[in-house]
Amino acid sequence: MTIYLAREASKVWRKVCAETTTELPMLREKWPLLLAGIVFQYIHGLAARGVHYLHRPGPLLQDLGFMALPELGQDKNYLSECTFVFIFFSFFLWTFHPFIYHSKRFYTILIWRRVLAFLVASQVLRIVTFYSTQLPGPNYHCREGSSMATLPPPNNVLEVLLIN
């Protein structure tokens, strides 16, 4: 039994090494685009924080989505976060499966480049819409009466640039 496991482990190790040698030249070529996509995630965070300074709470708007799906409530808001984390990490692990399994259908670097490109395009549109509309947010911390509905004016530049 140990001989079989050792043989399979060496096959997996060879597959990981082969995929790494294939993907590293692509990473060397595509790293500026990947880095730009990652840096834009920070820019999106800055824009979201900036709009939080401008936000003025108001009454909730009527929405068919909120009418069809009832709110979870503040005591169950962790369900949303857990669902997001599960989906994100499942996708993250799935993109690295060619390093282990034999079916090679895509390159991990190219998938992440495409994902980041779509994220940047979507987030540019999102930034434009939330700066141009200024609608009241439906989340609990954005509602009237919440202490977090509006951020106080920043005292220095670091308060704006450091995203918590």
Q: What sort of overall outline do the alpha carbons produce when their principal axes are compared?
A: elongated
Order of helices and strands: HHHHH
| Percent of sequence in beta strands | under 5%
Tally the beta strands: 0
Q: What's the gyration radius in Å? A: 22 Å
Mean pLDDT: 85
Main sheet specs: none
Q: Which structural category fits the helices and strands?
A: mainly alpha
Number of helices: 5
Low-pLDDT parts are none
The share of residues in helices is 55-70%
> What is the first-to-last residue Cα distance?
51 Å
Total domain count: 1
Lay out the secondary structure:
Layout: H1 2-54, H2 64-68, H3 78-95, H4 108-133, H5 157-161
Helix pairs in contact: 1-4
Protein name: Sphingomyelin synthase-like domain-containing protein
GO cellular component, one term: Golgi membrane
Organism: Triticum turgidum subsp. durum (Durum wheat)
Task: Write up what this structure looks like.
Helix 1 runs parallel beside helix 4 (108-133). The model has no long low-confidence stretch (mean pLDDT 85). The chain has one domain (2-161). It is elongated, with a radius of gyration of 22 Å. It contains 5 helices and no strands. The chain is 65% helix and 0% strand. The protein starts with a helix and ends with a helix. The protein has helices at 2-54, 64-68, 78-95, 108-133, 157-161. The protein has 164 residues and is an all-alpha fold. InterPro entries: Sphingomyelin_synth-like. One of its GO terms (molecular function) is ceramide cholinephosphotransferase activity. The chain crosses the membrane at residues 33-54, 78-99, 111-131. Keywords: Membrane, Transmembrane, Transmembrane helix. One of its GO terms (biological process) is ceramide biosynthetic process.
